[in-house]
Write a structure and sequence with these properties.
mainly alpha, 2 helices, 75% helix
Length: 68
């Protein structure tokens, strides 16, 4: 696997955007419904979502983008 083909800027940008969106949504939902903030289930869910984005950028995008 050639990591030089990974667009690191896009990877980091996507990870930060998705994490920010999910954390803000969780904070607002916890305020609205008076639930605990950043529960274990949310942390795992966020981690799995971010891993999915990383897998896309590392494994799929380098193969897909040159073919488009």
């Amino acid at each position: 696997m050639d990591f030089s083909k990974v667009n690191k800027r896009d990877l980091v940008t996507d990870l930060v955007k998705v994490a920010c969106f999910n954390i803000v949504a969780n904070i607002l939902m916890s305020i609205r419904y008076k639930e605990p903030l950043l529960e274990e289930k949310f942390i795992y869910s966020l981690a799995f979502i971010l891993i999915g984005f990383a897998v896309y950028h590392v494994l799929i995008a380098p193969q897909l983008v040159p073919r488009l």
